[in-house]
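Q: Structure for this?
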Amino acid sequence: MTNDDGLLQVSGVHFGYPGRPDFLGPVQLTLAAGLVAVVGPNGAGKSTLLRLMAGLLVPRSGSIAVRGQRVHRMNSRNRAKKIAFMPQHTQAPPDLVAREVVLLGRYPHRSYALFDTSEDLRIAEKALLTTRASQFADRTLDTLSSGEQQRIHLAAAIAQKTELLILDEPTSALDPYHQLSIFGVLRALCSHRGVTVVVATHDLNLAGQFADAILLLRDGKPLSYGAPKEVLQPETLEAAYGVRFHEFPSEDVSRPWVLPTGQVDAVVS
Amino acid sequence: MSAKSSTSSRFALHIALGLVVVATLIAVSPGIGSQKIGVVDAWRHLFDTESRIHIIAFQLRLPRAIKALVAGFTLALAGAVYQTLFRNVLATPYTLGIAGGGSLGALIAIKFGFVATVLGYSGDVWCSFLGAGIVVCLVFLMARGRRHISGNTLILGGVTIGLFCSAMMMFVTYLADVRETFFIVRWMMGSLEEIGNERVMGMLPPLAVSWVVLLLHARALNQYEMGTEIATSRGINAGLLQVICVGFASLATACIVSICGPIGFVGLIVPQAVRLMTGRDHRILLPAAAIWGGAFLILSDWLSRLLPVWYASLVSRDIGAFPLPIGVMTAVIGAPIFIALLWRAHR
């Protein structure tokens, strides 16, 4: 589970909320640069691990480092220039204009300037184009669908121009077209701009088709980490999710399709 | 239209508009009052320092308008900051109990004669600072141990402490004699009467520092509105931002309460009304709310002095030229506006 060329090193990390036992850990792995999908059942610790990587939570023990620099010891401004984070849900006020939301992503680079520079505007426009959100950039958030709002928040994270992008279920509200579109964007960010993307998702097939590596979590611990073909094994998935999976052949043999086929007993009172 | 030109031109438009309105109000204020003096006539006596008109216009009315501007500017700015920090439009120096703490401190000083001047500030000012500071500490203690302070917890705590302070103020009033009771009751209604210019000047250093600190955090507050996680991921220390902004907003509130008494509704309705005009960008909202807060209080002060005169002329009786307490005036104007804003929000 380690790779010496890794961008992000997670060393012996344990996490638990104050007064409660460890909820996550031990986690020991090195994430290589590229697109890494974090998958696992509900409550496996995906969001918690992402927040630890982003420096939003402090591990009880162990450390997380980006290119050798400990995330939790970084100056918060410097960390924001290296790591962007997009949560699954935001508290953004509904009457904010979408373009303003994207421009807020430039804060770590221009925190003392009163107004956004022309470079900030250019980067924000490009990010809006990237997530196919330019057409509603002048609308307020409350007039946008959940999926459109997700694309705006993703554009803000992209506009932050960091080498590590951490996204918590960025496609949960998107239709298939936009799911593919967004994962295509993430893939392109990795390939063309050298950005490393860590993305939590419940869609195993999106992860399988686009990710360079998949981290499968169960009960707060990594169950498997590696290339899609290694992780998306029916036996491994069954161990994680508790249902049977079938593997289907795809054009790219290294990226299989998987589908849960087992049944879960329904309890109707 | 680019977003840059949009933001900077909106900033220029709103600030310029507010400044023009305030400058006009200040310029007209020497002519507004119970004694009929025309605005032009008043300004003709600007350098005639011995004349009665000069004394009324430039030694009473103009300084009073500037005091109203300073108080309104501060209370509206503090209200806008509190509303963002606690993500609640009801968050004001009053709902958080901070004005109550400051008022109680000042009342105790008035009642028990703590009037000695220390470091340039009289005892009631220090007691007001102390009262507001204790309330801020109590409210923060209630949220101790949590990763981030919940806005609702603080507001509920603040309301409780504010009610306690109100009860204690009633108790202090109960202990007072008739003369003290009259003074205390008038003070609790909020007033720009009898505030010496030197007291206001003495408050300017802490007020100016608070204004600058709060305005400098406008961009950080924009991030804070997106949620604590996003703000933190963009380099904002949300806990520190809360402490700094609540601290300086409370200091500024205590400064105003100590000299004017509690003046409600400015911090509640002005930021909300201005937000409807400017949008949520704090780079525009904070200065615009502050400027319009000043304008609101100048207008309220005019009305508090003119209404009794108009009423007297209406009933053809000489009831004297006693102005209404400005706190009563802001409530009379502010309550219907607040209800209208609520109605609009839930329409």
